[in-house]
Amino acid sequence: MPFTSASVMSPEGNGSSLGPADHGSLLDTCERALGRARGFQRPVLASWSRPLDVGDPVSVWSRARRSTQRSFLWQSPWDGGSLVAIGSARALRGRGEHRVRAVRDGWRTLVKDLVTGGDAAPGLPVGEGPLAIGGFSFRAEDAHETGRLPDALMWVPALQIRSTVPVPGAEGRPMPAELRLNAVLLHDSDPEQVADSLVHLARLCLTPDPDAGRRKRRDRPGRTCRSTELPGAEAWKGLVRGATDRIRAGEFEKVVLAREVRVTASAPFDLPAAVERMRGANPGTTVFAVDHEEYTFLGATPEYLVQVGDRTVHALGLAGTTPRGATPEQDEACERELVGSAKIQHEHEVVVSMLRDALADSCTDVTAETPPQVVKLANVQHLSTKVRGRLAEDSAAGVLDLVEALHPTPALGGHPRAQALSWLADNEGLDRSWYAGVVGWADRSGQGQFAVAIRSALLDGPTASLYAGCGLVADSDPEAEYAETCAKLRPMMSALGIE
Ligand SMILES: C=C(O[C@H]1C=CC=C(C(=O)O)[C@@H]1O)C(=O)O
After folding, report:
1. Is residue 79 part of a domain?
2. I need a surface site. Which of 181, 330, 485, 494 has the fewest CB within 10 A?
3. Is there a domain that residue 182 lies in?
4. Would the keyword Metal-binding be found if you checked this record's keyword annotation (predicted)?
């Protein structure tokens, strides 16, 4: 594809197009990577960047996501970071027990010979250079057995745009961002061809979509939906009773039991519209979407597993739930129950103490905030505790090592982990896939952010699997737990337009 300076124009005007000098600099980066690939006789990652102005990054994702097999959207309230990634320069895979480590090792090897070019954008949230993005299923075997999303899939995107999340009302107004184009060069690659195809991709992502307005107007088509609960409501409540029996018998202390609602619609779901609704209705959550082949996994989660920036580590204990009240008085009563219930406190403390212990292996100055805070979401409220530490001077651990150490926490699996997971494997009867897994990104110096993928759904055209789970302890009540899962499912139902 021949390059012309006018061929890569974004809708946002100045600062948002690539020129011939950019093309020359990108080509130079690819040529240097080729030289290194020939010298070392191994694949070399080339990563070229430049500052750019973008309007709403979500609109870039919306128009470009289906042009390649993989895309990624990330909008986080933690540091206001936004990431849109299209295409894949290199997949990093892992299987089984050591899947996170396998991905980490693949990533480390790839960035060892990294060749960079262009200019990085200053002043963006944490994260630097090319990123590895993607996630891990709840349990290593799940996805492998059923062939939906892989156990572990991270990849280096061909195109990544990092910026900050637009403040409400400012969507579409140009703001500073970094465009980065990545490719892996082999000893026999043609650098000109590589550079041209990256420019072609950038054009695709940055060129305005004349249909964007029309698409917004098609927001809620007259779609009809058929839903099935897996398992059925009474069977699920029976499982709750079975779990609490085992807990009282001393087999384990806590288990997080989930259920699925499978929805078949008369027409495919409108995912850009769903993302818009999730963003609008769930402030304070991380909105993510992972496109992999025909599947899309998306969610708006209030929980993060771990964040590493500048050698500071943050983990979050989020466990213990009550509904939101219909009036301020009722809401306060629900909050009092959340804060005052010994059962909920216990459910929460199990998570926080595991996080504290796990961080202590690689961190100094590990602290957990006390007392736990109350996080209010659209229709539920949770107990929340931030746990923080500093990576020890002699620690080489990065964010992926912490993912391996922490996942799954007792907020998703249970405690003790092995016994709870074994009970779930024998009884839950669910393919959780990436629900209650982790989704996020890592940079080459071990910084990164991983969210816990709850309040999420896995979509395949007109079929959606929605998930929700509850932490069970000895005195959990099946009816109350069932109602809690209904409340947790509601935001995704509304986002997808399922009534
Ligand atoms: C497992 C889920 O939530 C977890 C996170 C917050 C509160 C939870 C609870 O109170 O049970 C769960 O541990 C879910 O939303 O599917």
Report:
1. yes
2. 330
3. yes
4. no
313 and 382 part of one domain: yes
- Residue 161, in any domain of the structure: yes
Adjacent-strand bridge partners of 177: 52, 163
* Residue where one domain finishes, among candidates 205, 238, 259: 205
Among 417, 454, 484, say which to mutate for ligand 1: greatest number of ligand atoms within 8 Å of CB: 454
Q: Are 316 and 172 contained in the same domain? A: no
Q: What is the 3-state secondary structure (H, E, C) of 301-341?
A: ECCEEEEEECCEEEEEEEEEEEECCCCHHHHHHHHHHHHHC
| Residue in 178, 260, 276, 303 annotated catalytic | 303
- Are the CB atoms for 106 and 152 separated by under 8 Å? no
- Answer yes or no: do 19 and 154 share one domain: yes
71 lies in which domain range?
5-205
Atom of ligand 1 nearest to the CA of 469: 16
Question: Which residues, judged by CB distance below 6 Å to any ligand atom, belong to the binding site of ligand 1?
Answer: 256, 258, 303, 318-321, 382, 411-412, 436, 454-455, 468-471, 488
Give the pair of three-digit tokens for residue 154.
């991270």
Residues 135 and 263 in one domain: no
Ligand 1 centroid to Cα of residue 469, in Å, is 6
> Does residue 303 have an active-site annotation?
yes
Q: 216 an active-site residue?
A: no
CB-side neighbour CA atoms (13 Å) of 403: 35
**481 falls within a domain:** yes
Per the prediction, the chain carries an average pLDDT of 91
Looking at the fold, whether 239 and 293 belong to one and the same domain comes out as yes
Report the CATH number that the domain containing residue 415 is assigned in CATH. 3.60.120.10
CA 350 – CA 361 distance, rounded (Å) = 18
Pocket test for ligand 1, best of 412, 428, 475, 481 (most atoms within 8 A of CB): 412
pLDDT of residue 310: 93
For residues 478 and 432, membership in a common domain is answered with yes
Q: Is the pLDDT of residue 257 over 50?
A: yes
ipTM: 0.99
Atom of ligand 1 nearest to the CA of 344: 10
Among 174, 205, 236, residue at a domain's last position: 205
Please tell me the distance between residue 359's alpha carbon and the centre of ligand 1 in angstroms: 21
- Asked if residue 142 has pLDDT above 90, the reply is no
